[in-house]
Amino acid sequence: MPEPKEMQDNHPMPHIALKDVTKEYPAPQRGHAPTVAVDRVSLEIEKGDVFGIIGYSGAGKSTLVRLINALEPATAGSIEIDGTDITRLSAARQRQMRTGIGMIFQRFNLLSSRSVRRNVEYPLEVAGMGKAERRRKALELLDFVGLADKAGAFPEQLSGGQQQRVGIARALAADPPILLADEATSALDPETTDEVLDLLAKVNRDLGVTIVVITHEMEVIARIATKVAVMDRGQVVEAGETYSVFTNPQTATSRRFVRTVVRNLPTGDELTELRAQHEGRFFTISFTDEGATEARVFGALARAGVDFNLVYGGVDSIQGRVYGLLTIAVRGDAAAVDEAVSSIGSGVTVEEVHA
Ligand SMILES: Nc1ncnc2c1ncn2[C@@H]1O[C@H](COP(=O)(O)OP(=O)(O)OP(=O)(O)O)[C@@H](O)[C@H]1O
């Protein structure tokens, strides 16, 4: 018998492992190239992760989800769940495997003619569970998502956030170890989004469910994902701990994304206005919770004896951790300014903002 993977290399087996996964769709017309929706993607998702997959529309995120739950076959590559390559399973085994993966959707996909409780019961009914047992399970889940008092209501009587909470209860009905959330908060307002994200964090924390969050909303990732992969044109262009990808993006695509969520960087127009108001050279100084503080940055500049102003910025919270971004205007002769800026020391990144 072959050794389990954990024994071979002392590295715990990833919960979900994608290796060189490609998905091509045939060309819409003869003579055209096929669409490569997912292009040689490799990813490892550990048990208990809240793993974000982010990318602009058309990047291949939804296709990736359909591959992970075997709704569509991959063109190439392997997708292992707990060491089993699901791309090689029979259709019957794939169906069985799919009961271990809960799904929630942007449009909630509730059945309008069924009560909330009977929506949650639905997957259990399909699986052949007895009436009393599935009723008990549905009520327990509705209690968990904070909707015990809505069991008899119908979906249209609920707010969007409440409907998504029913969707989450239904997705958890079969006690799946994995939950896939495809744009689950994209149809919700910011307040309701927070409510649903808090619930997903509780599902992860209290039930130990591994959650894969697909979204184009960077804020969602900043709030709940511990790890993130950034997709662009079918490829994963960067993957890592969310805090590190946000504070130190390594690719141009990730940098562009991060800028959509980080509030403390002036946009082009704001920068033009700031330059009209403030003399001197502009620098953006960024620091993480492992580096400097605002006080240290200002202290160093004051000690260097240059004249400076904070023109923009502040401190953001990413995954509950500090990320500072300060844009300053510094006046003085070139050498003095360079020396002052370099005296801020380690733990900060200083970038001159050129006009
Ligand atoms: N069934 C299909 N047949 C042909 N092309 C498809 C199919 N599904 C997706 N595509 C193409 O694959 C690419 C990736 O699409 P996908 O929906 O996975 O991206 P996405 O990142 O989820 O974007 P969105 O957020 O807009 O859904 C796109 O170019 C899309 O047109």
UniProtKB/TrEMBL annotation:
Keyword Magnesium: no
One example GO MF annotation: ATP binding
Taxonomic superkingdom: Bacteria
Residue ranges annotated for the ABC transporter domain, each copy included: 16-258
UniProt xrefs under Gene3D superfamilies: 3.30.70.260, P-loop containing nucleotide triphosphate hydrolases (3.40.50.300)
UniProt-listed Pfam families: ABC_tran (PF00005), NIL (PF09383)
CDD domains linked: ABC_MetN_methionine_transporter (cd03258)
Keyword Heme: no
Keywords: Amino-acid transport, ATP-binding, Cell membrane, Membrane, Nucleotide-binding, Translocase, Transport
PROSITE patterns according to UniProt: ABC_TRANSPORTER_1, ABC_TRANSPORTER_2
Family matches, as PANTHER family: AMINO ACID IMPORT ATP-BINDING PROTEIN, METHIONINE IMPORT ATP-BINDING PROTEIN METN
Identification of the protein by name: Methionine import ATP-binding protein MetN
Source organism: Citricoccus zhacaiensis
Lineage: Bacteria, Bacillati, Actinomycetota, Actinomycetes, Micrococcales
Recorded name of the encoding gene: metN
